[in-house]
Design a protein that fits this description.
Largest interface: A-B, 61 and 61 residues
Order of helices and strands of chain A: EEEEEEEEE
Largest sheet of chain A: 6 strands, antiparallel, barrel
Shape of chain A: globular
Oligomer: homodimer
Strand content of chain A: 35-45%
Strand order of the largest sheet of chain A: 2-3-8-7-4-9
Number of strands of chain A: 9
Number of helices of chain A: 0
Structural class of chain A: mainly beta
């Protein structure tokens, strides 16, 4: 299908994700909390935003699937054999290729987080980090 | 802090979210799966992408917090009293104001999903819908 002539908002790449997977076909279908150690490297510009994140067991990572097509509303996932709507799949192929993963936070070393649970290519741009749940309101 | 001079990628608004909350101060801190019914209205252009989503109990909704500041790496959440890094909070204020919620899917009526679990302003732009989990591989 045709993509709209223009986008509606812009996003910043705030860092980069380092994983063992160099080719798309090597990436796991889905991350696992006991998968290999990956690094989330936050740009120096945004580093102060990590303050208070240490000690969280799980965090949510949003990243940009920069090699994925954006023009398919229907697709046949590999191994499935049947056509499905894009929004019924977690495939990277989607109008806005924003991936979301809950990962286990192993440690924070400066502006680098070591995590388990990612599924993406080495070099994937980072969009956001959030705690898995909002902090409890203080009493 | 200063935002970078330019963004790195563009996103499409693929629909709009209808909620009972018309002012930011009325929004709940966090959505609840037994919260009020909200509507996620997918643009006609992308509607075919919903195929196969019916029957899912929970889906992930990504949306764009269009009124939020993007230039704070440190903030004092209301009610907290202490400064925290942006990435240690789920506040809408962040470099890329992409919110993520797991919602209960009540029904799909054409290109409109009725869901419970959102927390955002009426009129919030929609970015993506995904099933909560990837479909099981077919045998």
């Amino acid at each position: 299908m045709a993509l709209p002539a223009r986008t509606d908002a812009g996003i910043y790449f705030i860092g980069v994700i380092r994983t063992p997977w160099r080719r798309r076909r090597d990436c796991p279908k889905r991350g696992s909390l006991d998968g290999p150690l990956c690094s989330v490297v936050v740009d120096e510009h945004w580093r102060a935003g990590l303050s208070g994140l240490a000690g969280r067991r799980r965090i949510q990572v949003l990243y940009w699937m920069h090699l994925a097509r954006r023009d398919l509303v229907l697709q046949v996932p590999s191994g499935a054999g049947t056509t499905s709507g894009t929004f019924a799949l977690r495939s990277p192929v989607r109008p806005n290729p924003i991936a979301s993963a809950i990962v286990a936070l192993v440690e924070i070393d400066g502006a680098t987080l070591r995590v388990r649970g990612l599924d993406c290519l080495d070099g994937t741009p980072l969009l956001d980090l959030k705690p898995e749940f909002a902090p409890e309101p203080s009493a």
